[in-house]
Automatic annotation (TrEMBL):
Superkingdom of the organism of origin: Eukaryota
Pfam families (alphabetical): RRM_1 (PF00076)
Record-given protein name: RRM domain-containing protein
Lineage: Eukaryota, Metazoa, Placozoa, Uniplacotomia, Trichoplacea
Signal peptide positions (record): none
Xref: InterPro entries: Nucleotide-bd_a/b_plait_sf, RBD_domain_sf, RRM_dom
UniProt xrefs under PANTHER family: LD29830P, SERINE/ARGININE-RICH SPLICING FACTOR
Gene3D superfamilies: 3.30.70.330
Entry-linked SUPFAM superfamilies: RNA-binding domain, RBD
GO MF annotation list: RNA binding
Domain RRM: 6-66
Amino acid sequence: THVCQVTNVSPGATVEQLNTLFGFLGEIEELKLFPSETQAAAVTSKVCFVKYKDCHSVQVARHLSNSVFIDRALIVIPASDG
C-alpha cells in the first residue's frame, strides 16, 4: 500500500503542519485531513490520510505512532489504496 491512516490528530492541526511532518519521510502524492479546516464543527480529533509515491515510506511513517504531535499521540497504520 502507498497510503497510511493517521488517527488521533489534534483538532488544531493544519494540512500544512501534517504535510511538513510526514514529508520528511518520503515524497507525498496526496494528503487529506478530515474534517477539513473549513468545516467549523467542534471535533475532538481529526483523521488524516497520506498517500506516498513510494510504498516503503508507509513503513517508515509507522514509526511515528505514539509520537506526540501538538497535544496528542498519533496512531499511524497502513490503509488500503482505495
